[in-house]
Amino acid sequence: MALIEFQNVVKKFNGVPVLDGLTFDVRAGEVLCVVGPSGTGKSVTLKHLVRLLTPTSGRVLVDGVDVATCSGRELNRIRSRIGYLFQGGALLAWMNVAENVALPLRECTDMGDDEIDRRVAAALESVELTAAAGKYPAEISGGMQKRAGLARAIVRPTNDVVLYDEPTSGLDPVTSVTINRLIRKLNRELGITSIVVTHDLPGALAIADRILLVKGGRAVICAAPADFLKSDSRDVQEFLAAMKGEIP
Fold it and tell me: Residues 26, 78: contact at Cβ < 8 Å?
């Protein structure tokens, strides 16, 4: 059963469509990787799920609720379920790692200090970052910053969906593998539903239950990795060739 649905979503900026009838779904508990050329609306898609953007037309549903038209209370409930890992980690420079991870709990819950400390410690352990709890963002690597951002995205007890916007962007291959492994680990151990916007096709092939190719603001194919690779769609084959540096 679909947890998230995009139904014929159109999004225009200054009359120009970035999403042009985008339709796909996300099943509860799966890792869906979204790939495609730059500028085709992948990050714009994520922003619709938390109503940072609203569709020009079409519907975005979470558990059957239209995100664009629901009440403020319902929107807050939906947002409380969704963690968001931004490209740069988006850590606050004046807070240490533990304080950054604790921020959603202090701002959005009435938890006491002991419970917050316990949940922060558990989140940091989940992303293998316990030793960096007292360090500041400037004192840790880019990969560790991403892991801290990921801990913050899963720290609330209501978080069961995580949106990843280019989680391996700017990272070396070894660190990218670590981030991808953690995404899959959290999916398996915590049952987190994950939507991963990425240019890292090898990573997507390794961690995805399904891969969605978006081109021109439309869904070209949404398929398991093996079926994605075997697709005879010209768009898929051109994309795969481009990833290999080939000219089809």
Answer: no
Amino acid type, 71: S
Mean pLDDT of 82-95: 81
The answer to whether residues 164 and 194 touch, using CB atoms and an 8 Å cutoff, is yes
Show the CA angle centred on residue 81, arms to residues 134 and 199, nearest 5°. 75
CB 41 within 8 A of CB 214: yes
* Residue environment code for 89-108, b if the CB has 16+ CB neighbours within 10 A, otherwise e: bebeeeebbbbbbbbbbeee
Main-chain phi, psi angles of 159, to 5 degrees: -70, 115
pTM of the model: 0.89
- State the Cα–Cα distance between residues 82 and 64, nearest whole angstrom: 15
User: Where do we find the tokens 């939507």?
Assistant: 195
Q: How many CA atoms lie within 13 Å of 184's alpha carbon, on the beta-carbon side?
A: 13
The pLDDT tens digits of the residues spanning 160-213 come to 899 999 988 888 888 889 889 889 988 988 889 999 999 888 899 999 999 999
CA distance 214 to 154: 27
Give strand pairing partners of 162.
83, 194
Using CA atoms, how far apart are residues 85 and 98, in angstroms rounded to an integer?
Answer: 16
What six digits make up the tokens of 171? 């990272």
